[in-house]
Amino acid sequence: MSMVQRNIILLGAPGAGKGTQSERLVADYGIPQISTGDILRNERKIQSDLGKEAAEYMDSGRLVPDELVIRMVEKRLAQDDCAGGFILDGFPRTVEQADKLAEMLQKSGKTLSAVINIVVAEDILAKRLLGRRKCPGCGANYNVFFSPPKATEQCDSCGAGLEQRKDDNEETIRQRFEVYQKQTQPLVDYYRSRGVYAEIDGEKPVEEIYARVRQEVERLCGKV
User: Fold this and answer.
1) Is 165 a catalytic residue?
2) pLDDT tens-digit profile of 82-107?
3) Where in the chain are the domains?
4) Choice among 165, 174, 219, 223 that is catalytic
5) Is 176 among the residues known to form the active site?
6) Between 20 and 30 A from 113 (CA), which of 92, 105, 145, 208?
7) Catalytic residue among 93, 110, 134, 192
8) What is the pTM of this model?
9) Is 41 marked active-site?
Protein backbone atom coordinates (compact mmCIF):
# COMPACT_ATOMS: atom_id res chain seq x y z
CA MET A 1 0.00 0.00 0.00
CA SER A 2 1.49 3.36 -1.03
CA MET A 3 1.74 5.98 1.66
CA VAL A 4 -0.04 9.26 1.03
CA GLN A 5 2.26 12.24 1.52
CA ARG A 6 0.65 15.02 3.54
CA ASN A 7 3.04 17.93 3.15
CA ILE A 8 1.05 20.85 4.52
CA ILE A 9 1.52 24.58 5.08
CA LEU A 10 -0.75 26.32 7.58
CA LEU A 11 -1.28 30.03 7.03
CA GLY A 12 -3.11 32.36 9.39
CA ALA A 13 -2.60 35.67 11.16
CA PRO A 14 -1.53 35.81 14.83
CA GLY A 15 -4.48 34.54 16.88
CA ALA A 16 -6.10 32.63 14.00
CA GLY A 17 -5.76 29.29 15.81
CA LYS A 18 -3.03 27.60 13.75
CA GLY A 19 -1.52 26.00 16.85
CA THR A 20 -4.82 24.38 17.89
CA GLN A 21 -5.43 22.99 14.40
CA SER A 22 -1.81 21.82 14.06
CA GLU A 23 -2.07 19.80 17.28
CA ARG A 24 -5.09 17.95 15.92
CA LEU A 25 -3.45 17.24 12.57
CA VAL A 26 -0.36 15.92 14.37
CA ALA A 27 -2.53 13.62 16.50
CA ASP A 28 -4.57 12.32 13.55
CA TYR A 29 -1.84 11.89 10.94
CA GLY A 30 1.28 11.30 13.05
CA ILE A 31 3.26 13.94 11.17
CA PRO A 32 5.32 16.64 12.89
CA GLN A 33 4.47 20.31 13.18
CA ILE A 34 7.52 22.33 12.20
CA SER A 35 7.90 25.97 13.16
CA THR A 36 10.94 28.01 12.18
CA GLY A 37 11.05 29.46 15.69
CA ASP A 38 11.33 25.97 17.20
CA ILE A 39 14.03 25.01 14.68
CA LEU A 40 16.10 28.11 15.49
CA ARG A 41 15.81 27.50 19.23
CA ASN A 42 16.74 23.82 18.88
CA GLU A 43 19.73 24.41 16.59
CA ARG A 44 20.98 27.01 19.03
CA LYS A 45 20.43 24.71 22.01
CA ILE A 46 22.41 21.82 20.46
CA GLN A 47 25.14 24.28 19.43
CA SER A 48 25.16 23.14 15.80
CA ASP A 49 27.12 25.17 13.25
CA LEU A 50 23.81 26.51 11.92
CA GLY A 51 22.69 27.35 15.45
CA LYS A 52 25.89 29.23 16.25
CA GLU A 53 25.60 31.19 13.02
CA ALA A 54 21.95 32.07 13.73
CA ALA A 55 22.75 33.08 17.32
CA GLU A 56 25.03 35.86 16.06
CA TYR A 57 22.05 37.44 14.30
CA MET A 58 19.54 36.76 17.08
CA ASP A 59 21.78 38.16 19.81
CA SER A 60 22.30 41.41 17.90
CA GLY A 61 18.56 41.80 17.22
CA ARG A 62 18.92 41.25 13.47
CA LEU A 63 16.67 39.05 11.36
CA VAL A 64 18.14 35.64 10.58
CA PRO A 65 18.79 35.68 6.80
CA ASP A 66 16.60 33.64 4.45
CA GLU A 67 19.55 31.54 3.32
CA LEU A 68 20.22 30.37 6.88
CA VAL A 69 16.55 29.71 7.71
CA ILE A 70 16.17 27.72 4.48
CA ARG A 71 19.19 25.54 5.35
CA MET A 72 17.69 24.84 8.77
CA VAL A 73 14.29 23.93 7.29
CA GLU A 74 15.96 21.66 4.72
CA LYS A 75 17.89 19.87 7.48
CA ARG A 76 14.67 19.45 9.53
CA LEU A 77 12.62 18.11 6.60
CA ALA A 78 15.31 15.49 5.92
CA GLN A 79 14.72 13.87 9.33
CA ASP A 80 12.98 10.49 9.56
CA ASP A 81 9.80 11.74 11.22
CA CYS A 82 8.99 13.79 8.09
CA ALA A 83 8.92 10.72 5.84
CA GLY A 84 5.10 10.61 5.87
CA GLY A 85 4.63 14.36 5.73
CA PHE A 86 4.87 17.54 7.79
CA ILE A 87 3.00 20.69 8.83
CA LEU A 88 4.93 23.91 8.26
CA ASP A 89 3.97 26.84 10.49
CA GLY A 90 5.74 30.18 10.01
CA PHE A 91 7.50 29.19 6.79
CA PRO A 92 7.47 30.25 4.04
CA ARG A 93 6.78 33.92 4.83
CA THR A 94 7.64 35.35 1.41
CA VAL A 95 7.35 34.30 -2.24
CA GLU A 96 11.16 34.00 -2.35
CA GLN A 97 11.04 31.51 0.52
CA ALA A 98 8.18 29.66 -1.23
CA ASP A 99 10.33 29.27 -4.35
CA LYS A 100 13.22 27.90 -2.26
CA LEU A 101 10.85 25.47 -0.50
CA ALA A 102 9.63 24.21 -3.89
CA GLU A 103 13.25 23.62 -4.98
CA MET A 104 14.05 21.88 -1.70
CA LEU A 105 11.06 19.52 -1.98
CA GLN A 106 11.77 18.77 -5.63
CA LYS A 107 15.35 17.76 -4.78
CA SER A 108 14.06 15.24 -2.24
CA GLY A 109 11.32 13.92 -4.53
CA LYS A 110 8.48 15.46 -2.52
CA THR A 111 5.54 17.66 -3.49
CA LEU A 112 3.65 20.24 -1.48
CA SER A 113 0.18 18.79 -0.88
CA ALA A 114 -1.93 21.52 0.72
CA VAL A 115 -1.80 25.15 1.84
CA ILE A 116 -4.58 25.87 4.33
CA ASN A 117 -5.27 29.50 5.23
CA ILE A 118 -7.31 30.04 8.40
CA VAL A 119 -9.04 33.38 7.89
CA VAL A 120 -10.35 35.52 10.77
CA ALA A 121 -11.43 39.18 10.73
CA GLU A 122 -8.87 41.54 12.29
CA ASP A 123 -11.25 42.91 14.94
CA ILE A 124 -11.87 39.37 16.24
CA LEU A 125 -8.16 38.52 16.11
CA ALA A 126 -7.40 41.67 18.11
CA LYS A 127 -9.89 40.66 20.82
CA ARG A 128 -8.46 37.14 20.94
CA LEU A 129 -4.96 38.52 21.52
CA LEU A 130 -5.79 41.55 23.68
CA GLY A 131 -8.10 39.44 25.85
CA ARG A 132 -5.66 36.60 26.53
CA ARG A 133 -4.92 35.95 30.19
CA LYS A 134 -3.00 33.12 31.87
CA CYS A 135 -2.90 32.01 35.49
CA PRO A 136 0.73 31.87 36.69
CA GLY A 137 -0.32 29.42 39.40
CA CYS A 138 -2.20 26.58 37.72
CA GLY A 139 -1.72 27.52 34.06
CA ALA A 140 -5.44 28.01 33.28
CA ASN A 141 -6.19 30.15 30.22
CA TYR A 142 -8.89 32.81 29.90
CA ASN A 143 -10.03 35.50 27.52
CA VAL A 144 -11.69 38.58 29.01
CA PHE A 145 -13.92 38.92 25.92
CA PHE A 146 -14.81 35.30 25.10
CA SER A 147 -14.15 33.17 28.21
CA PRO A 148 -13.70 35.56 31.17
CA PRO A 149 -13.01 34.49 34.76
CA LYS A 150 -15.86 34.83 37.27
CA ALA A 151 -13.90 37.48 39.21
CA THR A 152 -12.07 40.23 37.30
CA GLU A 153 -8.44 39.26 36.53
CA GLN A 154 -8.56 36.37 39.03
CA CYS A 155 -8.29 32.64 38.36
CA ASP A 156 -11.46 30.62 39.02
CA SER A 157 -9.46 27.55 40.08
CA CYS A 158 -6.76 28.84 42.40
CA GLY A 159 -7.55 32.53 42.90
CA ALA A 160 -4.18 33.78 41.61
CA GLY A 161 -4.00 37.09 39.75
CA LEU A 162 -4.07 36.58 35.98
CA GLU A 163 -1.22 37.73 33.73
CA GLN A 164 -1.18 39.26 30.25
CA ARG A 165 1.70 38.81 27.80
CA LYS A 166 3.73 42.00 27.34
CA ASP A 167 3.40 41.84 23.56
CA ASP A 168 -0.40 41.52 23.73
CA ASN A 169 -0.92 45.26 23.41
CA GLU A 170 -2.78 47.16 20.72
CA GLU A 171 0.23 48.78 19.04
CA THR A 172 2.27 45.57 18.80
CA ILE A 173 -0.72 43.56 17.60
CA ARG A 174 -1.50 46.08 14.82
CA GLN A 175 2.13 45.98 13.70
CA ARG A 176 2.06 42.18 13.59
CA PHE A 177 -1.11 42.27 11.48
CA GLU A 178 0.42 44.76 9.05
CA VAL A 179 3.56 42.66 8.60
CA TYR A 180 1.48 39.50 8.17
CA GLN A 181 -0.79 41.01 5.53
CA LYS A 182 2.15 42.47 3.61
CA GLN A 183 3.99 39.14 3.60
CA THR A 184 1.07 36.74 3.20
CA GLN A 185 -1.15 38.17 0.46
CA PRO A 186 1.45 37.46 -2.26
CA LEU A 187 1.75 33.89 -0.86
CA VAL A 188 -2.03 33.41 -1.14
CA ASP A 189 -1.90 34.36 -4.82
CA TYR A 190 1.22 32.21 -5.35
CA TYR A 191 -0.31 29.02 -3.94
CA ARG A 192 -3.81 29.61 -5.29
CA SER A 193 -2.36 29.69 -8.82
CA ARG A 194 -0.72 26.29 -8.14
CA GLY A 195 -3.98 24.58 -7.20
CA VAL A 196 -2.98 23.58 -3.65
CA TYR A 197 -4.70 26.41 -1.74
CA ALA A 198 -7.81 26.39 0.45
CA GLU A 199 -9.36 28.99 2.76
CA ILE A 200 -11.09 28.09 6.02
CA ASP A 201 -13.41 30.33 8.05
CA GLY A 202 -11.55 30.57 11.38
CA GLU A 203 -14.45 32.21 13.20
CA LYS A 204 -16.47 28.99 13.55
CA PRO A 205 -16.32 26.69 16.60
CA VAL A 206 -12.99 24.85 16.90
CA GLU A 207 -14.46 21.41 16.05
CA GLU A 208 -16.17 22.79 12.96
CA ILE A 209 -12.96 24.49 11.80
CA TYR A 210 -11.01 21.26 12.21
CA ALA A 211 -13.61 19.28 10.28
CA ARG A 212 -13.15 21.71 7.37
CA VAL A 213 -9.34 21.59 7.68
CA ARG A 214 -9.44 17.78 7.54
CA GLN A 215 -11.81 17.89 4.56
CA GLU A 216 -9.52 20.20 2.60
CA VAL A 217 -6.36 18.28 3.54
CA GLU A 218 -7.94 15.04 2.30
CA ARG A 219 -9.21 16.68 -0.89
CA LEU A 220 -5.89 18.32 -1.76
CA CYS A 221 -3.65 15.45 -0.68
CA GLY A 222 -5.72 13.09 -2.81
CA LYS A 223 -4.60 15.08 -5.87
CA VAL A 224 -0.91 14.24 -5.50
Assistant:
1) yes
2) 999 999 988 898 899 999 999 999 99
3) 6-122+184-221
4) 165
5) yes
6) 208
7) 93
8) 0.84
9) no
